[in-house]
Amino acid sequence: MRVILQRVTQGSVTVEGEVTGAVDQGFVALVGVTHSDTPDDADLLARKTAHLRVFEDADGKMNLSALGVGAGVLVVSQFTLYADARKGRRPSFVEAAPPEIAAPLVDHYAERLRAEGIQHVAHGVFGAMMQVEIHNNGPVTILLDTQDLR
To answer: Which of 28, 30, 37, 72 could bond to 11 as cystine, CB 3.0-4.6 Å?
Structure first.
């Protein structure tokens, strides 16, 4: 399972002209799932997301976590995180899990963020064509992959 965390001053998801989720200070979490992922992978990524110290303290150092600053997280499913572009010009997405595996794990990740103490967790719409607005802060972009974290 992979999550790209983008630290934002604000982020939102719009589907068919309607905002379905938004956060102010916090993260936009782009979440990809592969075939072998389990709820344990989602748990690990949620813990890491909530406790990762990438928000600035009073001295301007990245020393505070999302929990420490009361940040929100906007969770957006993104199967393209498992794109394989090594051959040809069109990426293959065979490593991305099908919706019946991916959707429950993306939801589980969001639920575990709440369990970790994140007060505001917003969502995109799984499988929809989404317009994601990201006001990247820093910019700070962090890739978390359970293959690397275990």
So the answer is: 28
Q: What CATH number has the domain bearing residue 119?
A: 3.50.80.10
Residues 6+ apart with CB under 8 A from 104: none
Q: Which residues are catalytic?
A: 78-80
Angle between helices 39-51 and 99-116 (to 10 degrees): 40
| pLDDT digit string, tens, across residues 63-85 | 999 999 999 999 999 999 999 99
Alpha-carbon dihedral 73, 113, 21, 70, rounded to 10 degrees: -40
Domain residues for the domain of 26 are: 2-149
What are the backbone dihedrals phi and psi of residue 128, each rounded to the nearest 5 degrees, phi first?
-85, 160
What are the Cα distances from residue 68, in Å, to 39, 118, 132, 143?
A: 25, 10, 25, 20
Rg over alpha carbons for the chain, rounded to the nearest Å, is 15
- Domain count along the chain: 1
Parallel/antiparallel/unpaired status of strands 26-32 and 72-77: parallel
Quote the pTM value: 0.96
Counting as low any pLDDT under 50, the low residues of the chain are none
